[in-house]
Amino acid sequence: MTTEYYSGPIVDAHHHFWQPAINPHPWLADGVLIPFRYGDYSAIKREYLPPDYFIDAVKHQVVETVYIDAEWDPQDPLGETEYIHTVAQRYGAPNAVVAQAWLDADNAAELLNAQAQYPLVRSVRHKPGGAANPQEAKAGKRTLMSHDGWLRGYAELAKHGLHFDLQTPWWNLEEAKRLAIDFPDTLIILNHTGLPSDRSPEGLAGWHRAMAQVAEVPNIVVKISGIGLADRPWNIDDNLWIIRETVAIFGPERAMFASNFPVDSLCGSFDTIFSGFKQAVSDLPYEQQHQLFCRNARRYYRTQQQSPAGQDSQ
């Protein structure tokens, strides 16, 4: 077996920028700590803008990035979109945006129309909640993906050519599969590898079954990111099988790598994580590696170059 570590351009398909001192992110406010899969996240309650990001990413050839909504005040979703466009205008990054939209809100149709007018918005995200563990899912607890009011909002996405970024644990993916089948014209981009946080044999088996089922539907793709573990440094031994199986399940044409920075800096450095990604797929043909690291994210998010990434254009 020959290996060739990927050395080409990278489009980071999932990251955040923020300025907690001036941005209304309730979960990043002083004195607030919500339950979080990585535990105490106080270390990321700091300003994080493109210059900070490109220092973290300096060892890798990141050429474009995709900003994901960061749970800005839900009373002002357009405020976040406006803010991140000013960041993009100043720094040349991000190059595409996943905006916030509460699909069960009374004004969901109006909001989606407004979000779609921004030049970098390609997708929206609304975490659908639901079962906290596989047992609750088996007992019948459902997410917003099964609620009529939410589905009315979801139906508006295709009218604007918007994708849906889905963040939900693997035990809710049966609902996601039904959603994708019922709305074939809307692309679902599954965030954070289906959240395989339970690394027991039973947990990994359940995750694998769920991912295989949802991958049967062609309008679902996946981002390989967010696979760190609480209180444990990110290392390839913990994550190699998950990375390899995700690529095998979805194929290199329907998966993409992402940093989830600065959140995943709680688990490891940018270099550790992306070097791990590169190691995990180094035996694949270089063209497939390019799909995973660059082409797929560029294609799905239609990234838009504005000025040299990481440089202040003012």
Would you kindly provide a written description of the structure presented here, covering whatever features stand out?
This protein is α/β, with parallel strands linked by helices and 314 residues long. It has one domain (10-301): Metal-dependent hydrolases (TIM Barrel), CATH 3.20.20. Helix content is 35%, strand content 12%. The chain has helices at 50-56, 77-91, 108-116, 134-138, 148-154, 173-182, 201-214, 236-250, 270-280, 286-301, and strands spanning 10-15, 62-68, 96-100, 121-125, 163-166, 188-190, 220-224, 255-257. An eight-stranded parallel β-sheet has the order 1-2-3-4-5-6-7-8. Strand 2, helix 2 (77-91) and strand 3 form a beta-alpha-beta unit. Helix 6 (173-182) packs parallel to helix 7. It starts with 9 loop residues before the first strand and ends in a 13-residue tail after the last helix. Residues 309-314 have low confidence and may be disordered. Belongs to the metallo-dependent hydrolases superfamily. Residues 11-302 form the Amidohydrolase-related domain. Pfam families: Amidohydro_2 (PF04909).
Task: Tell me the layout of helices and strands.
Layout lengths: L9 E6 L34 H7 L5 E7 L8 H15 L4 E5 L7 H9 L4 E5 L8 H5 L9 H7 L8 E4 L6 H10 L5 E3 L10 H14 L5 E5 L11 H15 L4 E3 L12 H11 L5 H16 L13
Parallel strand pairs: 1-2, 2-3, 3-4, 4-5, 5-6, 6-7, 7-8
Compact description:
With 314 residues, this protein is an alpha/beta fold. The chain contains 10 helices and 8 strands. It has a single domain, classed as TIM Barrel (Alpha-Beta Barrel), CATH 3.20.20.140.
